[in-house]
Amino acid sequence: MDVLAIRDLAAAHRDRYLVALRTMVNIDCGTFNRAGVNDIADRCESRFREGGWEVQRIGHVSGDDGAELGDTVVGTFRGSGNSRVLMIGHMDTVFDDGTATERPFSVRGNRAYGPGVSDMKGGLLAGFFAADVLRDAGFDAFERITYVCNPDEEIGSPSSSATIGRLAADHDAALILESARANGDVVSARKGTTDYTIRIHGRAAHAGVEPDEGRSAVIEAAHKAIEVAGIHGRWPGVTCNVGVLRGGTRSNVVAEEAVLAVDLRAPELATLQEAKRAIEAVCAQPRTDGVTISVQPDGWHPPMEKTDASRRLVDEAVSVANELGFALSDAATGGASDGNTTSAAGCPTLDGLGPVGGAAHGRDEWLDLESVVPRITLLAGVIARV
User: Fold this and answer.
1) What pairing do the DSSP bridges indicate for beta strands 179-180 and 354-358?
2) Closest CA to 198 of 303, 291, 273
3) Residue 120 preceded by cis peptide, ω within 30
């Protein structure tokens, strides 16, 4: 593929991209806003159909918590070759309803701003436009490109991860369209993560009349918070954060119940498992007689480790970038994405292939508009090289 010719084709689509980006950013689509997420899903489905993709739309079945999530939209574009490339972009954001009205899409200098502009409306659209420019170029030397637009990445993809894992096992490479890092790096490794809810049950008593009859769950929780936090850094790259300690009802009651919420992350599966066993060991030994502790994992992502196969994807991306005239590096990050799922399924994975962005999940989230054409071209070039 002549990537400079691809860049010219991408540049011809830039204005259409910006119009679509403005429209998408100005739609409230926090994960639990089913109507808003499905509004984005409708637009993705329309883009697939207009581009000649086969389309499957998978409705969400609410779980035990009763949450109603949006649909997963899967497009398949068939070619004449042998390679199978999986792209993934998510349609949900972390923002509350009303945010798009409060601070809608705007442009200041070379940056676009707005809720979800880089996480990940910019990358979501980049997947469609990269496929468009490959079609414009007449390139079809692939068996199929499969593009998953999922509704729930910001909460760990509980509805879509089974679909993603199944498809990843049947593809040669997975390209995740989260934004490139603020310095332009793509992402070749992500930490695995496990969330825990630790529930502590003591015995209530009147704090003034018979305090010694009580067994304080709050005091036990304080000890456990310190012990669990001590796991942080025990192995290289392992982080362990006690983010919530909640318990008790009134100051004159010995607390009967307490809860800890813990975030555990590790760059390798082996150290993630070691750290998980360490948390369980801490909780197996209450300091207070008569207190019981339960440990409940609330979902996890295995690490996205940099393998020889994923390293080759990095090398291809670096080669394409060099032909386009810019340097490209890869990096590891602590945050999880759907790339963790594809990697765990054995599919070589490269992440951060959207345009350059930063300040995700915050009021000043931004997307570098000067990076749009080069990164669409980079994505198309990597697909072609795969």
Assistant:
1) parallel
2) 291
3) yes
For 193, the enclosing helix (H) or strand (E) is strand 192-201
Please answer whether residues 184 and 363 qualify as being in contact, where contact means their C-beta atoms are separated by less than 8 angstroms: no
Contact 372, 179 (CB under 8 A): no
DSSP one-letter string for 340-377:
HHHHHTT--EEB--EEEEE-TTSTT-EEEGGGHHHHHH
Tell which phi-psi region holds residue 334, choosing left (phi > 0), alpha (psi between -120 and 50) or beta.
alpha
The alpha carbon dihedral of 154, 160, 162, 164 has a sign of negative
The tokens for 124 are: 């979501």
**CA separation for the pair 163, 200 (Å, rounded):** 36
Residue-wise DSSP of 16-34: HHHHHHHHHHTS--BTT-H
The structure tokens listed for 297 are 């994992």
Residue 143 token pair: 């068996």
Give CA angle at 39 (125, 160), nearest 5°.
75
Tokens of 287: 């300091």
* The overall pTM is greater than 0.85: yes
- Amino acid 148 reads V
User: Is the sign of the CA dihedral 210, 213, 219, 223 positive or negative?
Assistant: positive
**Average confidence (pLDDT) per 10 residues, the chain, 386 residues:** 94 98 98 97 98 95 70 98 97 98 98 98 98 96 98 94 97 98 97 96 97 97 98 98 97 98 96 97 96 92 94 98 97 95 97 98 97 98 95
Q: Please list, residue by residue across 265-301, b when 16 or more beta carbons sit within 10 angstroms of its beta carbon and e when fewer do.
A: bbbbeebbeebbebbeebbeebebeebebebeeeebb
Residue 15 backbone dihedrals phi, psi, to 5 degrees: -65, -40
